[in-house]
Design brief:
Number of helices: 12
Helix content: 25-40%
Low-confidence stretches: none
Bound molecules: nicotinamide-adenine-dinucleotide
Number of strands: 14
Distance between the termini: 46 Å
Structural class: alpha/beta
Mean pLDDT: 97
Radius of gyration: 20 Å
Oligomer: single chain
Order of helices and strands: EHEHHEHEHHEEEHEEHEEHEEHEHH
Length: 382
């Protein structure tokens, strides 16, 4: 298949580009380095430097003989994006190209405005580009489990059947996000649903939980092929952050009571989910929504797991609750359904002590790169 990856330089986009190229697909990757720019502006550089997208693609081709087409440009620029779609004629587009940090979206007016404009406009443009130049193309859009928030009822897989005054209908499951970033994902979902109804596009909206890990069969080929790995408060996801905190000898920063439960997944399972989504597309005119996580943990449980894995390596890890910079429930009901990907055949990679130990070992080997002031929260929701 011809697979176009928007946000191909990102934490998820780059391993995805390599994965699909290695599986024999024709892959194109688009990025404007927004994440590199924001990371630099907010003093949130990753644990190790990575070559830029064009250099990575060259290195990957030299190492594996698989080619990735690269475009450097802004997906909010319709002239640019529509020309890429017209020329590449993708059968599937995986849309990662958004500002993905909740703290960044809550920092100040300029960062909130950028997040809203960037995320809504990339999604709007990709829908139009598909409509105009590749109407049979399957859009696979990265949303987040955070769209649902933490309701006091079971979370369904995207949709809910409502019985009201003797009648019934199916609606998008209610969404109530906890940051502006997550709210842009809610708005994306509504935008996609509108154009699916209007134009009969086929789309998969993935409600993904926080991802952890950095090793994939392709990223193991060469250190230059590893994804960007953030441990700071702005771009780092919680488990990746805890790993680096342990390597730095800093207590793990549990926000508040630590009873916040979320659905997590290994980077390998993100790749598996994307492959399943693309090889088993929905029907024309269907918006398929899949919850994308494999296990749920509270923040306290995650910290305990990291502590146990570190102990297995002879490292003493501490846990220190700190004031929660976010406005979120710290103890709550959480029961999200996870049936769609299981039905498609997902074989999850669970969070084992071996998985944690390999990550801790790697972070320890880069201990000298860790800048402690990037670890603690610098952005508050209030
Ligand atoms: N990493 C996670 O745990 C996680 C969890 C749930 C959802 N997601 C979603 O998955 C997607 C990818 O996340 P990630 O962690 O890889 O983030 P990332 O920031 O590492 O990757 C996003 C990439 O998109 C690029 N980009 C942003 N705006 C762009 C634009 N206008 N034009 C071109 N390129 C642009 C960035 O430069 C970056 O390389 C995001 O949409 C994110 O919201 C991520």
């Amino acid at each position: 298949m011809r697979v176009l990856i928007l946000g191909g330089d990102g934490y998820l986009g780059w391993p995805t580009a390599m994965h699909f190229a290695a599986a024999g697909h024709d892959v194109g990757a688009v990025d404007n380095y927004a994440r590199r720019r924001i990371a630099s502006e907010t003093d949130s550089l990753p644990l190790f430097a990575t070559p830029d997208l064009a250099q990575r693609a060259q290195r990957f081709e030299a190492t594996s003989n698989h080619h990735i087409d690269v475009w450097i440009g802004d997906c909010t620029d319709y002239a640019f994006l529509s020309e890429v779609v017209r020329a590449f004629q993708p059968e599937a587009i995986i849309h990662f190209a958004e500002q993905p940090s909740a703290p960044y979206s809550m920092k100040d007016f300029a960062t909130a405005r950028f997040t809203l404009n960037n995320n809504l406009n990339t999604t709007f443009n990709v829908l139009w580009a598909i409509h105009e130049h590749a109407p049979q193309c399957h859009l696979v859009k990265l949303g987040t489990m955070g769209e649902y928030g933490t309701p006091n009822i079971d979370i369904e897989e995207g949709w809910i059947d409502i019985h009201h005054n003797g009648r019934q209908d199916r609606f998008l499951f209610p969404r109530q996000a906890g940051s502006l970033y997550h709210t842009t994902k809610v708005l994306d979902t509504d935008l996609i649903w509108f154009y699916v109804r209007t134009w009969g596009l086929k789309c998969t909206d993935l409600m993904q939980g926080p991802v952890y890990g950095l090793f994939t069969p392709q990223s193991r080929l060469d250190k230059a092929l590893l994804p960007n790995f953030h441990y700071d408060d702005i771009f780092g996801t919680v488990l990746n952050r805890f790993i680096v905190q342990v390597a730095a000898g800093v207590p793990m920063t549990v926000y508040g009571k630590g009873g916040q439960v979320r659905g997590y997944l290994n980077l390998l399972d993100t790749l598996q989910c994307l492959e399943l989504a693309i090889t088993r597309p929905p029907a024309d005119g269907e918006l398929r929504i899949l919850n994308q996580f494999t296990e749920t943990f509270s923040v306290n449980e995650l910290a305990e797991r990291v502590k146990d894995a570190a102990a297995g390596l002879g490292i003493t890890a501490d846990i220190k609750p700190i004031a929660n910079p976010r406005n979120e429930k710290e103890e709550h009901y959480y029961n999200p359904k996870f049936t769609g990907f299981k039905a498609l055949g997902l074989k999850p990679h669970p969070l084992t002590s071996e998985v944690l130990a390999e990550m801790i070992d790697y972070a320890v080997s880069l201990k000298d790169n860790i800048v402690p002031k990037r670890i603690f929260p610098r952005v508050s929701w209030n």
